[in-house]
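Can't paste images in this forum, so I'm doing it all in text. The chain is below; anyone willing to post the predicted structure tokens underneath?
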Amino acid sequence: MKTTDVLHAMVPHFYFAIKRYATPSWKIPHAFFQHHNLMLIIDGEANLLCNDAEFTAVSGDIVYFRPGDMRRGDTNPDSLVKCYTVDFQYACPIMENGSWVNLDVALPFPAHCHIQDRYLFRRLKELFEEFMRHWSSGHENRTFRCRADFMEILLLISNYLEKDTINYSAIHKVEKVINYIAANYTRKLTLDELANSIDISPSHLGHIFKETTGETPFEFIIKYRIARAKEFLEMGYSVTDTAGLVGFGDMFYFSKYFKKIEGISPTKYTGL
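Text version of the structure:
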């Protein structure tokens, strides 16, 4: 069974969570651990043992202990570790032949791995921070919110480990370009301008944009303008005024692309 299938069925239960700022005397006792434990190292160094493997965890590292693992740890006193850490258990209930069955499936995560992608690392930090905020809130719905954050964390790590081809840095750049388009779609936009907005070459932008969205920047801009045009038409604006408001200087091209995307002309759309 794929890890994503396990994650879709997973219901985690949390025992302990903290954003840890280690002191020089901080230690993890040398003992068997009873729960799952996931850590994201954000600064400093931790000297850790998992069963027979010893390693040093640094910023950008994910550390994962399973129930039954023998573990031990301390921090470098000259580089005190800072990390997020969550102790949890989980069930994977699925419906099978009309009855609920609990899958006994382990997460295929290594004890120690490094996140090379800076954007993914940043996103994981954001999610852990949200998790900690919800965990400490005392809100009656905190469990549901924590689960949502935590499941996204596990899914991102799983995708990274299984595929190792997801370029989160490229995704981040494309998101910036999309925001730029949203703020400037009413005027003529060139590939050069979009590329300059994030300081990369036009050819590289064209490549990562298509790879991330499945569309060229030009195709995305057209679809974005038509989506906004529908909003203006529904508010009662004329077809001519709407074309100008969404950046089409030529009514012929506005009608052409509107019909191509929506299947009907903008005039007929206003009569629906």
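The CA atoms of residues 48 and 244 lie 62 Å apart. The chain has a mean pLDDT of 91.
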